[in-house]
Write a structure and sequence with these properties.
- The chain has helices spanning about 5-15, 20-25, 30-45, 80-90, 115-125, and strands at about 65-70, 95-100, 105-110, 130-140, 145, 150.
- It is an alpha+beta fold.
- The protein has two domains: about 5-45; about 55-140, Alpha-Beta Plaits (2-Layer Sandwich), CATH 3.30.70.
- The strands form two sheets. Strands 2-3-1-4 form a four-stranded antiparallel β-sheet.
- It is extended.
Length: about 160
């Protein structure tokens, strides 16, 4: 990847709404060069989606998000990829990561309720042949996502008391 594309990505990861004209001015390049670079990165699936970061706690939403640690037996010839693909094809699965350490995959899912998440784990995920064990963690509150802090920082205005 050339330097121009990397610079475009660095700017766009902070604000993907910046126009071609603004990117061109910031990088001292022509608008045509910026447009061509972005189109090439979209074609090559370097840029796969433009999406906002949403603070769902500010929206009247009853979504439940869980992170599931999954230990699996890799398949001969395909390793972890085959089971990861079976898992990420479920619509409730938002992300799947191959991990190092105590477990093999981390699966992020969203459900309408705790019961939906429990049902997914017990009826879909745990029943897959390669799955040895799961451990589910529910997200109670998000403080920061993709570098963005959701809550305003509150300074501590209490008086210092010392003995």
């Amino acid at each position: 990847m050339n330097d121009l594309k990397f610079k475009i990505l660095e700017i766009m990861k902070e604000d993907a709404r910046k126009g071609i004209d603004v990117l061109a001015a910031m990088l001292d390049e022509s608008e045509e060069a910026i447009q061509a670079a972005i189109e090439e990165m979209e074609r090559d699936k370097v840029i796969v989606k433009y999406a906002p970061i949403i603070n769902w706690s500010k929206v009247d939403s009853d979504k439940v998000t869980a992170l599931i640690e999954v230990q699996i037996t890799p398949e001969r010839g395909r390793g972890f990829d085959a089971i990861a693909e079976r898992i990420y094809l479920y619509p409730e699965v938002k992300a799947v990561y191959l991990m190092s350490g105590a477990y093999d995959l981390q699966v992020e899912i969203e459900g309408k309720s705790l019961r939906d998440v429990a049902s997914f784990v017990s009826n879909k995920l745990s029943t897959l042949d390669s799955v040895l064990s799961t451990k589910t963690h529910f997200i109670l509150k998000k403080y920061k996502q993709d570098g963005f802090i959701f809550e305003d920082h509150q300074d501590d205005h209490r008086m210092l008391v010392s003995p």
